[in-house]
Amino acid sequence: MSGEEFTILISDCHHDHVLQIAENIRKNVEQHNFLINKGTKKINITVSIGATTFHTTTRKIDDLYRNADAALYKAKISRNRVCSYSE
User: Fold this and answer.
1) What are phi and psi of 76, to 5 degrees?
2) How would you classify residue 79: left for phi > 0, otherwise alpha for psi between -120 and 50, otherwise beta?
3) CA–CA distance, 39 with 65 (Å, rounded to integer)
4) Is the separation of the CB atoms in 14 and 56 below 8 Å?
5) Which residues does 53 contact at the CB level (< 8 Å), separation at least 6?
6) Which of 16, 20, 31, 32 stands the most exposed, by the fewest C-beta atoms within 10 Å?
7) Which pTM was predicted?
8) What does residue 50 show for φ and ψ, rounded to 5 degrees?
9) Phi, psi dihedral angles at 42 (to 5 degrees)
């Protein structure tokens, strides 16, 4: 899988709200026209997002990154999607 990877940490947020935030990010990126070549060319990009939350879908703090990465990999297979990790 190619592309850049970023991490967003959100504290005190219910898992359903995390998924809603992720979906809003995904939709906004998908609908935005990005300008390149000094504004002479428009391109569209998409994002795949993996999500997990401590105590909701991930029980051990040490597993947070691994579980988010597993959800991200699942999202990347389908492309332009939000996927959640669940144990």
Assistant:
1) -65, -30
2) left
3) 36
4) yes
5) 13, 14, 15, 18
6) 31
7) 0.87
8) -110, 135
9) -100, 140
List the chain pLDDT tens, one digit each, 87 residues: 567 888 888 888 999 999 999 999 999 999 999 999 999 999 999 999 999 999 888 899 999 999 999 999 999 999 999 999 975
C-alpha separations of 69 from 35, 37, 44, 63, 84 in Å: 29, 32, 24, 10, 10
DSSP designation for 54: B
- Distance separating alpha carbons of residues 87 and 78, to the nearest angstrom: 20
Active site residues: 4
Instruction: Determine the length of the chain.
Output: 87
According to DSSP, the residues that pair with 84 across neighbouring strands are 51
